[in-house]
Amino acid sequence: MMRRLPDIAGGIPRRGASVLVLGLVALFVAGAVWGQEDTRCLDCHGKPGFKKVLPSGRTLDLFVEPTLLRLSVHKDKHCVDCHADVNEVPHKEIPQKVNCRKCHYQGNTEGAPQTGRYLEFDNSVHGKALKAGNPKAPACQDCHGDHFILPGSDPRSNVSRSNIPQVCGGCHLQIYGQYRESIHGKAMASGVKDAPVCTDCHGEHTIARPEDRTSSVNPGRVANTCAKCHAKVVIMKKYGINSEQVATYEESFHGIANEFGVLKAANCASCHTAHDILPPDDPRSTVNPKNIPKTCGKCHPGANANFAKGRIHIDAKDPSAGIVYWVALGFKVLTVSTLLGLFLHIGLDLFRQIRTRKEKDGGNGKTGEERS
Ligand code: HEC
Ligand code: HEC
Ligand code: HEC
Ligand code: HEC
Ligand code: HEC
Ligand code: HEC
Ligand code: HEC
Ligand code: HEC
Ligand code: HEC
After folding, report:
1. 78 vs 33: CA distance, rounded Å
2. Which atom number of ligand 6 is nearest to the Cα of residue 269?
């Protein structure tokens, strides 16, 4: 074995040349065949304006811009790699919907990313709906697009953050309308990169119903989801927004109840809504003083304007919190003095015990155990 090694190595330059020639020929042939494969389709589908009028009167655009495919992540792919059922030209049957799963699965040998996200998608509300045969549920291409698929980091991608609201909004129309008018939607539209889009709150391949315990928008987890931004001083100070809201909520009655699993207690979205969020000084905001009775009244029947008198996000450590500050301070004083009293009591008691023991020990020089 060892002796043959130099032999093989020596053969490389000579044989390399013929391999190169063969390779070039193969590449040329393959290129021509592949090119032909695609041109076969593009003979019809590459003609601008190629379309079909459906019996319903709607026109189906059948023109495909091949350069888009070449600029996408699938630049090395050919028409039939995706449209795998088109095996004759012209084709008689109407091609089936593309199955992206042909290549996109964990452990694939096609070079598609290896990621647990495919499985995550199957367990999402969309994946389950798709499996159950809901024709309105999104398949991969409904979010990612067809011929111009790009990574989310590319601003031209369907799934780039700034395009996400439109993609989700295409099916969730009413929510899209609300979101667009909200402080978050307006901020995103005006280029504020820190503002949340649908996927910041809902996840991407992990989207679940709010009732689902694992959902990022489950009542028990909403505060954590808002906290991703609202508890961060570096983000919030840019917009002049107080970043104590999360902490004050967690210390509030609602926050503590929620922590203990009382999910009917108010979470951020119960008061602020999920998609209609507006600053408190906007008269349309659910947390504007004018609307407070209605907002609290959902759960506290008969709540009037006085019910929420003062501020909701009360920082008990701040004297401007008024009565709450004094009550909290009172509690603190009471707690500290009670504890001090307790320590004093224990200390005195210990002192007394040691003294009595010393007195007894001083008497016979032995402990009680040795005596018995
Ligand atoms: C002779 C022209 C012609 C050629 C060549 C051709 N097609 Fe088509 N293709 C059509 C027509 C016409 C339709 C519309 C079919 C219908 O709806 O009845 C169509 C429809 C399609 C559709 C489905 C559109 C939809 O959503 O209903 C796909 C996908 C497609 N072709 C892919 C291909 C591929 C891939 C090739 C090459 C392997 C190819 N075609 C070659 C004429 C052609
Ligand atoms: C990465 C996979 C992929 C490749 C490669 C691909 N397609 Fe498609 N194509 C799709 C998807 C996804 C759709 C949307 C319909 C669907 O879901 O099946 C589509 C739709 C179409 C349609 C219907 C009209 C339209 O634009 O919606 C035609 C025609 C078509 N493709 C032809 C082609 C031709 C011709 C090529 C080669 C130049 C090609 N496709 C390459 C994925 C692909
Ligand atoms: C014939 C195999 C094949 C099919 C079918 C296919 N893909 Fe891919 N896909 C790949 C390969 C290979 C890559 C990796 C490309 C690279 O990294 O250069 C990829 C990459 C991707 C990426 C990665 C972008 C990123 O973040 O890097 C997305 C998203 C994607 N494909 C979506 C789809 C969708 C949606 C469909 C169905 C319309 C589809 N693919 C169909 C092979 C395929
Ligand atoms: C509801 C919309 C939606 C659906 C449906 C969807 N995706 Fe995604 N997908 C996203 C978003 C959003 C991202 C994140 C984009 C980013 O920022 O990178 C993503 C990311 C990806 C990535 C890149 C992530 C990585 O780890 O490399 C791949 C690959 C991918 N999706 C493939 C698929 C496939 C395959 C399907 C179908 C089984 C699918 N997606 C269905 C929205 C969707
Ligand atoms: C192609 C249409 C389509 C697209 C695109 C789409 N969805 Fe959905 N979505 C649905 C359908 C249909 C359901 C209902 C599934 C069911 O009830 O079984 C659903 C359900 C949901 C649910 C659960 C609703 C509930 O009542 O519990 C959430 C949350 C959701 N989608 C968020 C999103 C987000 C975020 C995006 C974008 C990343 C998105 N969807 C993109 C069609 C879509
Ligand atoms: C700031 C966080 C946030 C953003 C951004 C957001 N959502 Fe939601 N979404 C929630 C919360 C929290 C819920 C839970 C239900 C509730 O409290 O109303 C929810 C519920 C939902 C539901 C199911 C319940 C319903 O009302 O039908 C859907 C569907 C949905 N969102 C889609 C979207 C879409 C689409 C977008 C983007 C246009 C989006 N969401 C943006 C936080 C958000
Ligand atoms: C991805 C980060 C992010 C997430 C997640 C997020 N927000 Fe925001 N939020 C912002 C930014 C940034 C602004 C400031 C926008 C501006 O003023 O241009 C804002 C503004 C607000 C405002 C208006 C404050 C004011 O006085 O102007 C409220 C109220 C609010 N968010 C509540 C919430 C709630 C409730 C949640 C969770 C359901 C949430 N946000 C989730 C980033 C986020
Ligand atoms: C019980 C109802 C209620 C709950 C629960 C609640 N808020 Fe508020 N929030 C309000 C009210 C009322 C205001 C306006 C008055 C004030 O600032 O106290 C407000 C104000 C805000 C503001 C604006 C502060 C500013 O500087 O302009 C933000 C941001 C905010 N809340 C975020 C949150 C977040 C994040 C959560 C969850 C961790 C949450 N809120 C939970 C009722 C609530
Ligand atoms: C989503 C429902 C919900 C909303 C909205 C809500 N609360 Fe509550 N709140 C509860 C629950 C549940 C409790 C637990 C005690 C109970 O059952 O009364 C509670 C307890 C309280 C308590 C302490 C216990 C008590 O009864 O004195 C106060 C104070 C309170 N809420 C004020 C408010 C104010 C002010 C608002 C509006 C800004 C509000 N809540 C909005 C559900 C809600």
Report:
1. 11
2. 17
